[in-house]
Amino acid sequence: MRLPNSQDAGLYVHIPFCVQKCRYCDFYSQTDLSLRPRFLDALMSEMEMVSAEGLRFDTLYIGGGTPSVYGYRDIGQIVNAVQQNFDIRPDSEITIEVNPGTTTIEQFEGYRATGVNRLNIGAQSFNQRKLGFLGRIHTPDEARKAITDAHRSGFKNIGIDLIYGLPQQSRVDWLEDLKQAVAFNPTHLACYMLTYEKGTPLHDDLKSGRVQELPGDQGRALFDTTIEFLEDNGFYQYEISNFARLAMGPASTISRHNLKYWTRAPYIGLGPSAHSFINSRRSWNVSNLDAYLTAIESGQTPIADKEVLTREQEMIEAIYLGLRMTQGIDLVWFKQKFGIDFSQTFKDSVSDLTKRNYLKVDASYAALTRQGRAFLDGITSMLVVHDFSEAQGKR
């Protein structure tokens, strides 16, 4: 199944506030909610500073952090400012991330009225023990209520996020979360394997021995369970961690915004720590709210640094991001972009991976098999480390 391939740009707004930091999360946020009005003013100013000449947008993603610490009037102000400052299509996908424990049905109704047409609900689990381990502020009942309220408020495009691979988690344990999520009839599910990111409390616990990571073979077994269960229940895996409901058509239920990252479409990020990518150029904002506010309020852009990707960097990204998607690397595009034939340049690794049933290649795409998806990082390393010198020589 081929995914839509819009090269319109995406716009990301990072809301840098959380009621409480989760133990696993390394995304930038802080818990001083008193700065919300000041940040909103600064965000409006940043939109006026950003140059988006020649770009047309068809997605807006308001993420974080916890965007739902803002009421619908503030979110409406953000959406209106985007429409005033950027060339955004009237049929754009407009998503907001929300966390249970910070929402009401009136809030959802207000979000809909502002033009938001997609929700991403960070349930993560329906088990209190697991929520406590992750440091989530909500209860299982609050997660269920948030999803129910989202439906009752009229949202048709609702995604649910779940985390698995917790220490000692069993297949039965994980299936219970999946069953409860599917019972709510979402249009999209994102199922992420728990990672221990440096600088997080969970990483500290892992290093100190207070927490034992789930063994790799057990994690891969849960990954296989995820795919099998969701496919049996009418979902299509279009990316390593993301599943769209088949009954409504994946083209309408995938995350159009996230697809831009994997297809290397242009995008602009606003807010602290947000990244932008346009024509091989990447830039990122300061990952500190005080520094962000100081820069904006003094009339300066909050950019921390920028880079122009080399051909080698672009090729590595194209391989890694392409293999994340179930449809794989677009080989025609790859040859047009880099001037080399993927199958020939990486023929040794391609031959080996094909024989081991980790990779399938035809005239149009090179894609990981279900078996191969569990070894994405290792396979990418195999391609770019073992065969890259040859690719570099064929300019």
What attributes does this structure have?
395 residues, alpha/beta, TIM Barrel, Arc Repressor Mutant, subunit A, 2 domains, 9-stranded mixed sheet, 18 helices, 44% helix
Number of domains as seen in the coordinates: 2
Number of strands: 15
Ranges where pLDDT stays below 50 over 5 or more residues in a row are: none
Q: What is the CATH architecture descriptor of the largest domain?
A: Alpha-Beta Barrel
Strand order of the largest sheet: 7-8-6-5-4-3-2-1-9
If helices are DSSP runs of H or I spanning 4 or more residues, what is the number of helices? 18
Describe this structure in words.
The protein has 395 residues and is of the alpha/beta class. It has two domains: 9-261, TIM Barrel (Alpha-Beta Barrel), CATH 3.20.20.70; 311-393, Orthogonal Bundle (Arc Repressor Mutant, subunit A), CATH 1.10.10. It is 44% helix and 21% strand. It has 18 helices and 15 strands. It has helices at 36-49, 72-85, 105-114, 128-134, 140-152, 171-183, 201-208, 216-232, 250-253, 256-263, 289-297, 311-324, 331-338, 342-345, 347-355, 370-373, 376-386, 388-393, and strands spanning 9-15, 57-64, 88-98, 118-124, 158-164, 188-193, 235-239, 242-245, 267-270, 275-278, 281-285, 303-308, 329-330, 359-361, 365-368. The strands form three sheets. It has a nine-stranded mixed sheet with strand order 7-8-6-5-4-3-2-1-9, with helices on both faces.
Summarize the structure.
With 395 residues, the chain is an alpha/beta fold. The chain folds into two domains: 9-261, Aldolase class I (TIM Barrel); 311-393, Arc Repressor Mutant, subunit A (Orthogonal Bundle).
